[in-house]
Design a protein that fits this description.
alpha/beta; two-stranded antiparallel sheet; 8 strands; 42% helix
């Protein structure tokens, strides 16, 4: 079966559909600058989303889940949930009401926040995006000093939740607050990369607070374009995977070749690698294109990412993970991030973007 895309780039970028974005905001003691940046940047986020003509104001909804931790690690709250709203001022007010403090041990209750997001009141037919902003991992992934080493006390498994999100058409983007996440946790980045891949999403590095609005808006715009290709190609992808027994990687290569030949373009978030100078010093090649995985040149971490991606639950993955040190240790980087910039551009669709489309096609209910 040969792929034939009847969508032109103009049709892709002129498509209009609702967009729901759920913010999962870490509200532990280090996070106040990020909360403030998200609140102060909401107008920029909206303007970026509206500027391409894909949406009217009423097409956009924003929700918020602030998270800390379970007692006895944290006594204030586990989650604070704010439902979706199209009222941007109301959403900004919700963000302003969140203050950063406490948190107890280092891991937090990201798993519970993901579960709440998965159960949120998403609109049928909307592009569904979860953006998690954090500098710590969830409980149960094997980090030192974890007060709940088996995972959430409520028996919520983040890998199971991510699988459910993928089936429901919810894409997860994790915005990793750097350098804290990479300096303080040996396996958190690997975990988050595997987790996000289950939904067709990915991990984004954040070092400069000024680029946070661009990372959020760019993630959403990438997800919107991705959903268009999922709708167009899902039946064909499943047919090739099931009837012709062709691997996902081969399908991705074929589809990518077809789309590139057809001149298809995709909204693309372009962001500097915040450890550029460190990686150059270590002899590691650099790409400013965000879909060039930061771990790509550090092969020791790749296997762990795949383990988290393929595992059905935390217990299964923990039995297979090989601790190899954090990304900075693996790549002999001293951890001083370079200056960071970010922009949303329209570029020829990349192979990684096609791979995310394939993942969504194969897991959707």
């Amino acid at each position: 079966m040969a792929y034939q895309s009847n969508l032109t780039s103009d049709e892709v970028h002129g498509t209009r559909a609702p967009l729901d974005i759920m913010f999962l905001q870490d509200a532990t003691e280090t996070q106040q600058p990020y909360i403030n940046a998200a609140r102060n940047g909401i107008t920029q986020i909206c303007n970026t989303l509206l500027s391409g003509g894909k949406f009217a104001q009423q097409d956009l909804r924003f929700g918020l889940i602030a998270f800390r931790d379970h007692p006895p690690q944290e006594q204030s709250f586990i989650l604070q949930e704010y439902p979706f709203t199209s009222d941007v001022e109301s959403f900004a007010s919700n963000l302003a009401s969140v203050t950063a403090e406490g948190g107890g041990d280092d891991p937090d209750c990201q798993s519970d926040a993901l579960d709440a997001a998965n159960r949120a009141d998403w609109r049928d037919g909307a592009t569904k995006v979860v953006v998690m902003i954090t500098d710590s991992p969830p409980h149960g992934i094997g980090e030192d000093g974890d007060g709940f080493p088996e995972g959430s006390p409520l028996q919520i498994d983040p890998l199971c939740v991510a699988t459910s999100m993928g089936r429901a058409g919810i894409t997860l983007y994790v915005i990793a607050c750097e350098p804290t996440l990479s300096q303080n946790y040996k396996g958190a980045r690997d975990f988050y990369q595997g987790l996000a891949r289950k939904t067709g999403g990915r991990v984004l590095n954040l070092n400069e607070l000024s680029v946070l609005p661009t990372l959020i808006a760019g993630s959403a715009l990438e997800a919107v374009d991705s959903e268009i290709f999922v709708a167009r190609h899902q039946a064909e992808v499943r047919s090739m995977a099931n009837k012709e027994n062709i691997s996902a990687s081969e399908i991705s290569l074929r589809l990518h070749k077809n789309l590139v030949t057809a001149g298809i373009q995709h909204s693309t978030l372009v962001v500097d690698n915040v450890y550029h100078e460190n990686f150059v010093a270590a002899g590691i090649q650099h790409s400013t294109h965000v879909v060039d995985n930061m771990h790509g040149q550090c092969a020791q971490g790749d296997q762990n990412v795949d383990i988290w991606f393929n595992a059905e639950n935390l217990a299964e993955a923990r039995n297979k993970i090989q601790q190899v040190g954090g990304i900075l240790e693996r790549c002999q980087a001293h951890g001083t991030p370079a200056e960071q910039s970010a922009a949303v551009e329209t570029q020829p669709i990349s192979l990684v973007q096609v791979e995310n489309v394939l993942q969504k096609c194969l897991v959707r209910v």
